[in-house]
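Title: Comparing notes on inverse folding

I've been comparing how different people in this forum approach sequence design from structure. To keep things fair, I'm posting one structure and asking everyone to reply with a full sequence. Here's the target:
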């Protein structure tokens, strides 16, 4: 059984290629709440972090809010306060593996 235990997302400007913001949350697994030794070694995530995390639904709702907030913010770096649309999101599934 596989469950999501981490949601890292990086927002990158399409005009400057710079990182604008980062969303990063750990998720408490529902079906297998105790991490296996393999999972801990692979991800570097420890059980204490997972125990203090929130449910997938809560974290996903926060991610959706974060995305909506980013959509409505202006791109101050271009000097004319135009909104830079979010064209795509990169979900960094290998974040904890060092890639």
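Reply #1:
Here's my take.
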């Amino acid at each position: 059984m596989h469950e999501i235990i981490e949601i890292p997302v990086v927002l990158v400007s399409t005009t400057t290629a710079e990182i604008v913001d980062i969303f990063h949350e750990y998720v408490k697994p529902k079906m297998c709440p105790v991490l296996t030794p393999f999972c801990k070694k692979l991800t570097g995530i420890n059980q204490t972090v997972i125990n203090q995390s929130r449910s997938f639904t809560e974290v996903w709702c926060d991610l959706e809010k974060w995305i909506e907030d980013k959509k409505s913010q202006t791109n101050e770096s271009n000097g004319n306060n135009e909104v830079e649309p979010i064209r795509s999101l990169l979900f960094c599934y290998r974040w904890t593996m060092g890639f």
